[in-house]
Amino acid sequence: MCKHVLNAQVAIRSPCCRKWFDCAECHAETADHPLLQSFEMVFACKKCKKCFRKDAREFEDSDEYCPRCDNHFVLDAMTPKPSLQVEGEDVRVDARMLKDDRVQGEQQRSIFDVKDAADRLG
Ligand SMILES: [Zn+2]
Ligand SMILES: [Zn+2]
Ligand SMILES: [Zn+2]
Question: Where is the CHY-type domain (predicted)?
Answer without folding.
Answer: 1-71
